[in-house]
Write a structure and sequence with these properties.
heterotrimer, A alpha+beta, B mainly alpha, C mainly alpha, A: alpha+beta, Rossmann fold, OB fold (Dihydrolipoamide Acetyltransferase, E2P), 4-stranded antiparallel beta sheet, 10 helices, 26% helix, MetI-like_sf (chain C)
Amino acid sequence: MKIDTDFNAKNLMPEAEPPVEDGATKYDVELVAVSKSYDGGAKAVDTISLRIPKASYCCLLGPSGCGKTTTLRMLAGHESVTDGDVLIHNRNVTDGAPSARGTSMMFQSYALFPHLSALDNAAFSLKIKGVKKAERHAKAMEFLKLVQMDHLAHRMPAQLSGGQQQRVALARSLITRPKVLLLDEPLSALDPFLRVLMRTELKRIQTELGITFVHVTHSQEEALALSDLVVVMSDGQIMQAGSARDVFEKPSNAFVAKFIGGHNVIDVEGRKVSVRADKCRIVQSVGGTNIPAEVTNIEYQGPMVRILVKDSDGKEYHAQISDSRFFADPPVIGEKVTFSWMPEDEWRLAA
Amino acid sequence: MSSMTMSPRIASWLQATPFTLIMTCLVMVPLAIILAVSFMDYGFAEIIPEFYLGNWTDLFRSSLTVDTYATVFRQLAMVWSITLVLGFTISYYLVFHVRSNMWRAIFLAACAIPFWTSGPIRMISWVPLLGREGLVNQALFGMGLIDQPISWLLYSEFSVILVYVNMLTMAMAGPIANSMAKISPSIIQAARDQGASEWQVIQEVIIPLIKPGIVVGTIFIITAVMGDGFLVRAMSGNQMNTPAVAIMNEINAFQFPPAAAKSVVLLVIVLGMVGLLLRFVDIRKELAR
Amino acid sequence: MGTKRTTSFYVLSFVFAAFLIFLYGPMFCVYLLSFQGPEGGMSFPMRGFSTVWFETLFTAGGRGVGDIHNSFIRSLRLGAIVALLTMLIGLAVGMSFRRRYPGGNFVFYSAIVSMIVPGIFVGFGISLTLNMLGMRPQWWYSGIGAQLTWSLPFAMLIMFIILGRMDKSYEEAATDLGANSFQRFQYVILPLILPGVIGMFMAGFTSSYEEAARAGLNIGTGNTMPMELTGLLGAATTPVMFAVGTLTTLFMFTMVIVTLLASWSLAKRRQLRLTAHHA
């Protein structure tokens, strides 16, 4: 995974516009009250508005059927917009053709042309433009180099592994010099090891190119690791949009707190609060809330240990404690403990 | 339960036996017999089992042979190119433009239903349309475009080609549509993303990917046109002579050995063309996909 | 997809509509002209409406209808037997392809050869073989045999496609659960491929009913429908041929609808059984 140090990815994007100072194009993508419904039925996407700042890595996060992929496809122009506007670089592209928007989409299945070599796949858009063979192959080779696939340029897609196909698909998308790259669950088809590797790679390329990536995922881990902007969606609506840290530390409602994981959502005096599991303890906290409970399960996770407990009403809670603290006095399943947290760790959720 | 202890290989052989016996005894052996008979002498309505090269020398001396092949290749070229363009257009429409699965199924059924009417009936159904007093002539006359009926509409090469196209377009469209349906929609969208126009998508992505379908469709067309004698006789009003017609005429006259020699030539040509085409596509792999 | 329609959609819709007219135009002429008045001929205009041409068909010895009655019965009899044999032999050869075995390619390509060799050669070859053996053609062996060379390859392809797409792990799972090979076939494979089995029967029947090139020389005495109709083509002077066309189409239509309904109700019954089990 070593990058050629003389190789400056920004050179591959000569037509990228110079940074604009005026406020008008601070954003790469703007969605204004966008809705999508099929044949007059229920709304798949319900009046969402979103601004994605320049050169940011944005993840659309949510469970399947939440409308995140539909939103991405509307950005790409593969799905028509029922209501509202889509702006890219301050230009209204709501009804524009996919190729005229300045976006490029990377498909979940990669969608490589099976009859063309990696090189010809990458060079496809140049061929469409009528660029001469030698020139377009040279250009495609540069982009294959960017994704470290130049050594396999002459292989056919069927002869490439999933991760390699993905890299070629990435090169093919980037060669159109998109202002915004759209990625539809790009890592979901890879095995866990490769997933983490590709994740780093995507972030590197995004940073080097200085363009916006919009990445659809159902993995909160992926979203938190990559994003400058996390957009949590549910039922066609945006639940919360903010930095990864904001979303994790200050979830706006119970859905976000539960979906992002690592939180207990608790009713305290008639209002809902969330408490991070790693702030909870299974010993008495002086000045905190203490609940008598019984240990129901213990999951060893390496540096942390996750402990599930149940109180006398049958309500479940979980705590994450460091392995050193756990092994200092390891509880066993069925043991009576005290589940506790401090008031300053409560985060108040919207109703 | 003997099969529980039977080796899988023997089980497969037993299962394939009836099928293989029929294919061997009723296809392979008879084709070999045709070859053998082509070297035999004949009398009136009888085969004389003696070695005789006359059937072959007659065949290669006759200018009729060249004429009949010229006719059938001309017809094949026309039928193939028309059914290819038409079949492609129809499949492309059904696979990529019709979005609702229900409508696609209805349209496909609509294309299949006319074939439930028996072949000879469908041939004769052109008479009221194309005959001297047919609808087409009546309409042209009514519009004042002609003052006497056009005679080449029926019992001509035109009507032969027209009916071939009518009967064989779906044989070309079917395999092409099958190949097209295997193209993932995201591949088309990826090409559009890359700036390709609809025509460029067809040229650069769809056509290269449906080659197997075109090959299979072409094979259907070749065997249908080269091997048919009934349609040509009926639609040309017994005026056109193709190799298959010539063979049928000799069979009807009980001149089996010369018919066998002609059959061998035609078979070698047809199988040669098909074999050449099959070099470009692995049928077994295509089907299992 | 959900994007907007382009101009090409409308152009292609027009082409498709024109093609349907090209397919159906002549057929509707047949259906319409079969109700031609008694004074009318084989062309338009219609001289009144009547069912006189249908009546001709059903009153024996009508005007130039040949032996249509008996040919129809012969065709039905032949079709039913060919369909049954096609289904059984097709099923067997299809099952053989559940595993790779030596000779499998020969079996597969012999079917491909039988499909691409023009029918008259197969028919001619069989007839020559009988001739050499000094046997006379009879419908119940050479007729059926000749038609099987045409229907079986299709049956094999149907099975090949259906079984080829069926996950092999179903059988492995059944074996793990203690099923022997017969139970595996009866409880796992057959229910899954039932539509294909019905499909083979239908393919067998329709290909036999329409086929003349192979059976023609080997059927012995007595024409089948397509042979009889081809014979009548040249001699036809009245709309009685069209009446035959209308009736045979109606017959095929009924056959197909009945088959579809049968397989639909079969699937429905299975669905009901499944939901009953779950309830």
